[in-house]
Amino acid sequence: MPYNIVVCVKQVPDTTDVKIDPETKTLVREGVPSIVNPFDTYALEEGIRIRERAGGKVTVLSMGPPQAVEALKECLAVGADEAVLLTDRAFAGSDTLATAYALSLAIKKLGTDVVLCGKQAWDGDTAQVGPGVAEELDVPHATYVRKMTLDGGSAIVERLVEGGYERVRVPLPALFTVVKEINEPRLPSLRGKIKAKSAKIPVWGPQDIGADTTRLGLGGSPTEVVRVFSPEVRKRGEVLDMPASEAARYLLSKLEGVIR
Amino acid sequence: MEPAYNEEQMMIRDLARRIAEEKVRPEAARLDEEEEFPYEILEVLKQSDLFAVPVPEQYGGLGMGVTETCIVVEELARACAGVAVTYAAGFLGSIPLVMFGSEEQKARYLPRIARGDLCAFALTEAEAGSDAAGIRTQATKDGDFYVLNGTKQWITNGGEAPIYTVVAVTDRSRGVRGASTFVVEKGMPGFTFGKKEKKMGIRSSATRELVFQDCRIPKENLLGREGHGYLITLKTLDRARPGVAAQAVGICENAVDLCVEYARTRRQSGQVISSFQAVQHLLADMATQTEAAKALLYQTTHYIDSGAQEYSKEAAMCKLFASDVAMKVTTDAVQVFGGYGYMRDYPVEKLMRDAKITQIYEGTNQIQRNVIGGALVKESARKGKRG
After folding, report:
1. Number of inter-chain CB pairs under 8 A, A vs B
2. B132-145 pLDDT, tens digit each
3. What is the ipTM of this complex?
4. Alpha carbon A253 to chain centroid distance?
5. pTM above 0.90?
6. What is the CATH number of domain B230-382?
7. What is the mean predicted confidence (pLDDT) over B48-58?
């Protein structure tokens, strides 16, 4: 049976070395190239595989600044059918709760059987938005999924848990967050990239999804960041990233310098 | 420096580079060591539509030119020239079909090629390489069939490709005008594969003998007309030679990158060797020559793609220059790495082995000089100038 699949993706800086603005305590995005959150690429791949097996449609959904449209185009190039971007000043500064609220309204509007998310974003690392969306939608969810099989109106999934995995049956519609063990994401195709380049991606604001604006943005976010800091940098030794024989020779020359 | 690529060309470069870095480079040393054909990588190239690049749109391709094809070859060659030549030789084998195939032949084969069915071009024989007129493989007309007999040698993609364009003699009395070109498919009765060659470089690519013993092929598989084989061969090689230059440029770029990185970390006499002027000058010459070869390559492909009718000289020039540069640059790369460069644990000796073939195949560089010299004389004579 065909499935209506929504994959939630986030555009993130292409680095794990995230810098934080000490004044606003938000992520510094300037000067850092953006990519699709790597964990979300596994969710997209799983969505495409479900469609290839059972039929249906894969829609990618993102909330972010207008330039997040590039992340959605990348998803279209890989094989998503459609994309929607939630962008508006009213969304800016949303914490995980407000983000989950906005995404859930968009998903309701799209209608869906299966919602897929990466296990977490690699900039924020909270892993809260996926389960938050499921709560707002009032549908069951399973996190850290490493394998999933759809069986008509339900899914049988294996969840990674400490020391092993658990297998659960989840009635659809439902939301799943996936881990990288689930599949190997494909690369985009040239045809996909050419098509994505000219794709018109719908942009939705709060009124398009019927959102209560008091639940959005900084004002709608109960999370308060009190202090953000980087751990103190400790002086570390010199790392010799070279073959052993060369490293040994180098070490010896260093030691000789000390002894003399 | 990059030529002024348009948006689609940048897309192709980015995608090919990503595949090269993520899928090809990590495998390059192992494929070389084990002389293993890169099946999994070719699968990725198929899925990514890169085989569709040079195939006309009406036959399921993307209808792009020699420039775009060379961008793919160059990017693949940065990671592994063996993988790059497998792709480039597929392009070479498809040219006779694209340029000289009938409507029916194109409709039958080009969609398969766009989807990733490999091609191979079979000209060389034991007694005929540079001397295309010396080929012995015979094609004898028999009713609705041609019967092929003979052996082709050193055929890139031999044994792996499902589609072959083969040059054979249909009328020995007519010399080069007695050669014809045929499409032969793997699995046709009487068509088998001989010796698999063990090579100095490009070891992940397949190079093999093709053996025809009373191989009956339908007469519909003749490309163009009887006697057009030599002309088709020349036109095919003209169009394919920039592909060899692209391999050479890719090899050079890899060599320069690896050398600069190595020189910045390798220490001798208490300092990194990149601080020595002798090393910097080597690097400077390597990089400059690479840029010059790349500029000539894409100048040539733009000329071809602009619709030029005659480009033998230009194609030969870019192949000649880029391959000679590749040999020089990779030899110097081994020098920069010193003793380590000579060891197979390090990546640069492979580049030197891979570079050598670019001076030899698709016409030795001596033949390229003949082509260029001949064209210069002919052009001058055409202008009516006296010698």
Report:
1. 42
2. 778 999 999 999 99
3. 0.85
4. 48
5. no
6. 1.20.140.10
7. 97
Query: Nearest by CB to A187, which of B7, B18, B265?
Result: B18
The answer to whether B358 and B236 have CB atoms below 8 angstroms apart is: no
Three-state secondary structure call for residue A88: coil
Contact list, A197 vs chain B (CB under 8 Å): 7, 11
- Locate the chain A residue with the closest alpha carbon to B57: A191
CATH class of B7-117: mainly alpha
Superfamily of B120-229 according to CATH: Butyryl-CoA Dehydrogenase, subunit A, domain 2 (2.40.110.10)
Pick A193's closest partner by Cβ from B15, B267, B345. Answer: B15
The verdict on a CB contact (< 8 Å) between A187 and B7 is no
Look at B52 and A191 and tell me if their CB atoms are within 8 Å: yes
Q: Are A190 and B47 in contact (CB < 8 Å)? A: no
Residue for token pair 């016409």 = B363
CA distance A242 to chain B (A): 9
Q: Residue A46 to residues A1, A179, B174: CA-CA distances in angstroms?
A: 16, 11, 62
Tell me which residue of B43, B45, B37 sits closest to B20, measured CA to CA. B45
Place of tokens 């399921």: B60
Concatenated DSSP letters for B151-178?
EEEEEETTTT-SEEEEEEES-GGGGGGG
Place of tokens 């071009």: B121
Domain regions of chain B by residue span: 7-117, 120-229, 230-382
Mutate to test the interface with A, among B7, B9, B11, B262 (most CBs of A within 10 A): B11
Domains and CATH numbers, chain A: 3-215 (3.40.50.620)
Query: Closest residue of B to A187, CA-based?
Result: B48
pLDDT bucket at A202, cuts 50 / 70 / 90: very high
A250 at interface of B, judged by CB pairs closer than 8 A: yes
């000209």: which residue's tokens?
Answer: B123
pLDDT(A20) > 70: yes
pLDDT tens, residue by residue, A73-102: 999 999 999 999 999 999 998 999 999 999
Nearest-angstrom CA–CA distance, B172 and B166: 16
* Better-predicted residue by pLDDT, A104 or A17: A104
- What pLDDT does residue B387 have? 52
SS3 A202: coil
Chain B residues closer than 8 Å to A188 by CB: 15, 48
Give me the residue from A186, A197, A250 closest to B47, CB to CB. A186
Asked if residues B346 and B328 have their Cβ atoms less than 8 Å apart, the reply is no
Instruction: Respond yes or no: is residue B220 known to be catalytic.
Output: no
Chain segment A236-259, per-residue pLDDT in tens: 778 888 889 999 988 888 888 777
Residues of A in contact with B49 (CB under 8 A): 189-192
pLDDT tens digits, one per residue of B263-293: 999 999 999 999 999 999 999 999 999 999 9
Please identify which residue in the block is written with the tokens 């599949």.
A183
